[in-house]
Amino acid sequence: MKEISLEKALVEQVERIGSADILVGIPSYNNAGTIGHVTRATQAGLAKYFPNYKAVLLNSDGGSNDQTMDVVRNTNIETSDTLLITHSSKTFLKITTPYHGIPGKGSAFRTIFETAKRLNVKACCVVDSDLRSITPEWIELLLKPVLESNFDYVAPMYLRHKFDGTITNGIVYPLTRALYGQRIRQPIGGEFGFSGSLAKFFLKQDVWESDVARFGIDIWMTTTAIANSFKVCQSFLGAKIHDAKDPGVDLSNMLFQVVDSTFELMAQYIPVWHNVTESKPVPTFGFQYAVGLEPIAVNVDRLIEKYNMGVKDLKPIWEMFLPGDILATLSRLQHASKNDFHFSDEVWVKIVFNFALAFKKKVIHREHLLKSLTPLYLGRTASFIMEVWDSNADEVEQRLEQLCLAFEKEKLNIIDHWS
Amino acid sequence: MDWLNDLIIEPIEVYFNNFLLYLPTLTSAVIIFILGIIVSVLLSKLLSRILRFSKLDRVSQKLNIPEALLKGGIKETLSGIIGKIFGWTLFILFTLISLQAMKLKPLELLVERLVLYLPYIFTALLIMLFGYLLGNFIGRAVLITSVNAGIKTAGIISRFAKYAIFFFALSVALEQLGIGKDTVLVTFAITFGGVVLALAISFGLGGKDIAKEFMEKRLNGEKDEIDYL
After folding, report:
1. Are A199 and A117 in contact, with CB atoms under 8 Å apart?
2. Are residues B120 and B178 in contact, defined by beta-carbon separation less than 8 angstroms?
3. Quick one: which of A114, A124, A51, A44 has its CA closest to A84?
4. Domain ranges for chain B
5. Angle at A173 (CA atoms; ends A134, A61), nearest 5 degrees
6. What is the mean pLDDT of chain B?
7. Is A364 in contact with B71 (Cβ distance < 8 A)?
8. Are strands A192-195 and A123-126 parallel, antiparallel or unpaired?
9. What is the CATH number of domain B118-216?
10. pLDDT score of A83
11. Between 20 and 30 A from B51 (CA), which of A11, A221, B78, B125?
12. What ipTM was predicted for this assembly?
């Protein structure tokens, strides 16, 4: 495994600090507009809920050119008029550093894990730098289960708009739940708490040159924690509102990186998930409440149009590994009107498992395989959005529960193919 | 009737005698050729089977060789491919031996030249195979990327990419064989340059609206606000 390379200044700062109890990591790339709020919330959370702990905030930056690191350095709760903090932390230190390696969130996390190891921290958490809805309570909810209840991994749980998180809702959550039997609602949420020992375990894994170093890091952390029997829980953080997404981010690449990591882990942990026959809830921290969410604009017609283009041009590729009845259904949908465009759970679940099997059997190049999933994913997303157009949050959750059960049922049918 | 004997019967007799004298040579050549077919088929299958039993395919799977071949549209196993190449090599060798066994000067010369030419044929075949694999791989990558980018002419673009690579490989292979060296290269350059220019002009003039729509979609995030993750 290639050794991690840290900035000399970071190494010196860490050596000067010696050790700490808590490390909060904030990966960033051009987030000058929001990272100040995230830094303030973090500092306030540490001061309010962990005044007797020695805490370090580490900003691991991917080469921002908009003064992101300067904002972190210059942000302080004492300068803020909006916060009144009566507590003051025992020690609070801030470090900003650029990370090295493959550009991506995973490489930023690796620097955070390495720093956690060198500081020998008890608990660690990471929060995204584009968050607008983060409050000091998030820091408490991500760290307390580790420090006081001996949990190793804390996944986030949010209220999100029903059209948001479609990769999470459509693939990652139901598949992870079906495979490993743990109902972690946001396995790729972006904010996580974890113990110092789990950070060391993460560091030892040889994944830092793969897609884990990019968008795959979240699912990799969650799955690694579950599959290696670390104590896992989730914390309700409220609404997740963050900066408008970067239009330059290509959906196909994002889907590829997340699904690639998910399927890779699926192949790696076959003995773990083979023995899991049902799912169960995980301990959940935090007071759950309802909040209003910002509306989201969706162009369903365009999603269907892209699906139709996919069926027209990519069907010969799918014919290499999808069963005939599924292909027939996909062709039927291509000619359906918008009102009749219904992509059923059963078809979608079979598609996902057949893609996973084709991935394992290396039927075609993995990037071609997984990128050819994009039009199908868009078709399924369009169908789901139309179905829940008038539903409230609870109804959407119930609808997702049905999908999860379909995944759990199909998993039992496909186990033999994976032996 | 001496003239009949001189003009017709004697030449036929001479030809027939010569043919009878040559018959053992021809027979041996034909036998070598037939033997070559049988031996190459049998040894090809035998070698494939030996390689399969020696778990070559499993080793090749670990090295991702079947994946690489599939990328180029070849579904055969590695042991099968090696067996077939071995079989065809044997067949060519037996054919050359049988031609030489005929002991005909022009054929002997042809065989001699063919033997000297063999390395070029082999190199050309390798280039063609590589071009075929690469063309299929790139063609598929272009197709998927274009479909995901919402380009309606994805099929045409991918086929163009695939056949451009095939054609390029063919031109390099022909150059290797010394066939129309400059002609092939110049033809390729003119065709390729022409097609690119035609595409640029047609996209610039005829497809300016599509280009505008494409750029707008790229820059404006295609109007969707879904956070997929």
Report:
1. yes
2. yes
3. A44
4. 1-103, 118-216
5. 40
6. 81
7. yes
8. antiparallel
9. 1.10.287
10. 47
11. B125
12. 0.84
